[in-house]
Amino acid sequence: MPPPLIEEYSVGWVCALPKELAAAQAILDEKHGSITSQDVRDHNNYVLGRVHNHNVVIACLPAGVDGTNAASTVAANMLRTFTGLRFGLMVGIGGGIPNLEKDVDIRLGDVVISQPDKSHGGVVQYDKIKSLEGGYVVLKGSLNKPPSLLLTALATLQAQHEVHGSQISAYLSYMLEQHPHMEETGYAFPGVEKDRLYCANCKPIGSSACDRCEGGRVRRKERRNTKPLIHYGIIASGNQVVKDPAIRDELGAKYEAKCVEMEAAGLMDDFPCLVIRGICDYADAHKNDVWHRYAAATAVAYAKEFLSIVPLQDVHKISYAADVMSKSNGGPLQVE
């Protein structure tokens, strides 16, 4: 379909990987054609469409590029062209941080949503630190929380899930029906047998140094079904790939983080947004690509259900994202 006017797009959707972009495209209710006028300083490519009542702009980080700065640049350039955007969604995959001692039973394919707690706004930039006398290390500043409109929608959706359950599985099924090739390329559920959480205390794998694992694999209760669960809380974001269970568990213990990833911290202060992550691995040495596409699909399915809760009339009442970003930076956008 031909695109609406540029100012009629209200949601900016940022992905980090092509497989995340593919899942986002597949979940659209309606796909729009390309725009004819793009700011000359904006080097993003866009997918445009509609999700429920919302016109959305989807952009992906350049191939092979990651990190908080890259995400910030994509968002800033998006706002140059799409001046009507009110808020953003960062939707993609991340590493899970289970903590069975505190009943945080995160599995591959589950979804983690950035939600503020008492001391953090939903995302923690764990590598932005300062060293104090005596070897103490503390976070340098804190990141903004999502706008009230989105947090109110989160509360509404959580209550709805308590009564009716999530619609993620229904959206996934419909997506695969409409795009059967995606089932062949890995967007379907990989299987419970491929979800292995290895014990961080038992090295080499196969040794038995504790009573919570068997052959190096942590014993977990069997779930009644394979539907993804949704977890709300802190997401740890930084400019490094975490493949060490010790670092993963430290982030979980220090910040009560439930997910670790590499882009969200680049958005939170400048682009009012919510972060949605499908869990694709456990941030350890066993990271692989098996769950990447399915986790991307569960994340976009949650994003679609979330947008069904956000009233369009309320979106139009909040500030433009570009105005929020301009105030945060002390003036007009300066991203090159």
SSE map:
Layout: E1 11-15, H1 18-26, E2 30-32, E3 46-51, E4 54-60, H2 68-81, E5 87-96, E6 111-114, E7 123-125, E8 129-131, E9 137-139, H3 148-164, H4 168-178, H5 181-184, E10 213-214, E11 217-218, E12 230-237, H6 245-255, E13 257-261, E14 273-281, H7 292-309, H8 312-315, H9 321-329
Parallel strand pairs: 1-4, 1-5, 5-14, 6-12, 7-12, 12-13
Antiparallel strand pairs: 2-3, 3-4, 5-13, 6-14, 8-9, 10-11
Helix pairs in contact: 1-7, 4-7
Question: Which terms would index this structure?
Answer:
336 residues; five-stranded mixed β-barrel; two-stranded antiparallel ribbon; 14 strands
Structural commentary:
With 336 residues, the chain is α/β, with parallel strands linked by helices. Helices cover 29% and strands 21% of the residues. A 5-stranded mixed beta barrel has the order 5-13-12-6-14. A two-stranded antiparallel sheet has the order 8-9. The longest helix has 18 residues, at 292-309. The model is unreliable at 331-336 (pLDDT under 50).
